[in-house]
C-alpha cells in the first residue's frame, strides 16, 4: 500500500511536533521540510533520517509525488507562495486542521485497539468480514475452537473459504442470523452460530459472526427425543395390534424410565470407563457422584 507523502513548511515548535507525530504513522512518509531560518527544531534528526531539509520553499514544492503540504507558519505571505508553487494534485493543509485529524485518528486507533483487546479475551469465536467478504479479523478463540490458523483465514475471501456459513448469509441478506447450526469442513464439530451485518451511517460495511461449540447436553437431549419418538411409534403400533390405539407414551413411561434412557444414551456415547463416565456426567450436567448414585439406583453397569 502506497504511503501518503507529506512535506512540512515551518520547523518551529508546531512543525517539529507534527514531524515526530507523523514519524509514528505507518501509512505516512515525511519527504521534506522547508524552513527559511534553517534552524528549526528537529531538522538535524530529519536530515539523519533521510528527509530532505531545505531553506528554499521552491525546492520542497518541486518534489515529485508530493501528496500533502502542511503549513505550520500561520503567515499569509508564505501561504500565498505555497499556493502559487504547489503542483495541481498536491493538497495544502494548515497545521491546526492536521492536528485535529491526527487527534481523531489517534482516538480511532485507541478505540479499535480496545475493541480488539476485548474480542481477544472472550471465550466465543469471533470472525469479522468486510463488505466484499474478505476476512479482516478472527480472535484467538476462533483458532482454538475451529483449529484454523488466523494466517490461513485473515485476508481470504469468506466466499471461497466458507461460502455457506451464517456470516455469509448475514452479509448477503443484510439480516441478523441467530442460533444457526454450522460445521466447518475441517472438523465434525457443530457450532451454535450468530451473525449480524455491521452498519455505519445506514450502509452495510461488513458482518461479524460469533459462535461456540454446541453443548453435548443439547445433542444428547436431541438424541433422546429421537429415541423417544421411535419408542412412541412402537407403543402406538403395539396399541393398534392389541386394540388400544389410544395408548400414549406419556401414559406408560414415568420420569425415571426416561432418566434411564438418558443415562444409557450418555454411556453409549462416551463409554462405561471412568473417563467415559466423567464425560457423560459433564454432558448430563450432573456431578460424577450423582451419576454413580443413579447408575446404582437403576442397576446400570
Write up this protein.
By secondary structure, the protein is α/β, with parallel strands linked by helices. The protein has 3 domains: 4-104, NAD(P)-binding Rossmann-like Domain (Rossmann fold); 122-213, PAS domain (Beta-Lactamase, 2-Layer Sandwich); 216-297, no CATH class. Helix content is 48%, strand content 20%. It has a 5-stranded parallel β-sheet, sandwiched between helices. A hairpin with a 4-residue loop joins strand 6 (125-130) and strand 7 (135-138). The radius of gyration is 33 Å and the shape is elongated. The two termini are 66 Å apart.
Mean pLDDT: 79
What would you give as the CATH superfamily of the largest domain? NAD(P)-binding Rossmann-like Domain
Unreliable stretches (pLDDT < 50, length at least 5) are 241-247
- The CATH architecture category of the largest domain equals 3-Layer(aba) Sandwich
Tally the helices.
Answer: 13
Distance between the termini: 66 Å
Tally of discrete structural domains: 3
According to DSSP, the number of beta strands is: 10
SSE string, helix = H, strand = E? Answer: EHEHEHEHEHEEHHHEEEHHHHH
Molecular shape:
elongated
* CATH-defined topology of the largest domain: Rossmann fold
Q: Work out the strand percent.
A: 15-25%
Structural class: alpha/beta
Helix content: 40-55%
What is the CATH top level name of the largest domain?
Answer: Alpha Beta
| Widest β-sheet, arrangement of strands | 3-2-1-4-5
The gyration radius over C-alpha positions equals: 33 Å
Amino acid at each position: 500500500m502506497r504511503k501518503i507523502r507529506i512535506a512540512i513548511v515551518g520547523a518551529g515548535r508546531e512543525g517539529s511536533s507534527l514531524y515526530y507525530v507523523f514519524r509514528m504513522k505507518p501509512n505516512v512518509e515525511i519527504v521534506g521540510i522547508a524552513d527559511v531560518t534553517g534552524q528549526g527544531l528537529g531538522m538535524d534528526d530529519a536530515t539523519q533520517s533521510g528527509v530532505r531539509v531545505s531553506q528554499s520553499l521552491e525546492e520542497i514544492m518541486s518534489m515529485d509525488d508530493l501528496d500533502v503540504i502542511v503549513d505550520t507558519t500561520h503567515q499569509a505571505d508564505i501561504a500565498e507562495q505555497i499556493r502559487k508553487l504547489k503542483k495541481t494534485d498536491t493538497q495544502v493543509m494548515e497545521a491546526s486542521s492536521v492536528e485535529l485529524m491526527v487527534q481523531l485518528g489517534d482516538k480511532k486507533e485507541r478505540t479499535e485497539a480496545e475493541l480488539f483487546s476485548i474480542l481477544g479475551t472472550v471465550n466465543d469465536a469471533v470472525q469479522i468480514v468486510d463488505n466484499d467478504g474478505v476476512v479482516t479479523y478472527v480472535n484467538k478463540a476462533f483458532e482454538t475452537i475451529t483449529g484454523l490458523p488466523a494466517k490461513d483465514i485473515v485476508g481470504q475471501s469468506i466466499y471461497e473459504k466458507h461460502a455457506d456459513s451464517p456470516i455469509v448469509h448475514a452479509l448477503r441478506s443484510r439480516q441478523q442470523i441467530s442460533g444457526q447450526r454450522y460445521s466447518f469442513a475441517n472438523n465434525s464439530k457443530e457450532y451454535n452460530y450468530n451473525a449480524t451485518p455491521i452498519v455505519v451511517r445506514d450502509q452495510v460495511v461488513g458482518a461479524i459472526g460469533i459462535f461456540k461449540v454446541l453443548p453435548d447436553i443439547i445433542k444428547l437431549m436431541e438424541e433422546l427425543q429421537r429415541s423417544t419418538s421411535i419408542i412412541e411409534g412402537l407403543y402406538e403400533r403395539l396399541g393398534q395390534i392389541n386394540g388400544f390405539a389410544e395408548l400414549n407414551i406419556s401414559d406408560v413411561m414415568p420420569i425415571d424410565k426416561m432418566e434411564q434412557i438418558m443415562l444409557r444414551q450418555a454411556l453409549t456415547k462416551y463409554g462405561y470407563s471412568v473417563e467415559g463416565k466423567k464425560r457423560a456426567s459433564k454432558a448430563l450436567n450432573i456431578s460424577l457422584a450423582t451419576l454413580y448414585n443413579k447408575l446404582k439406583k437403576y442397576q446400570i453397569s
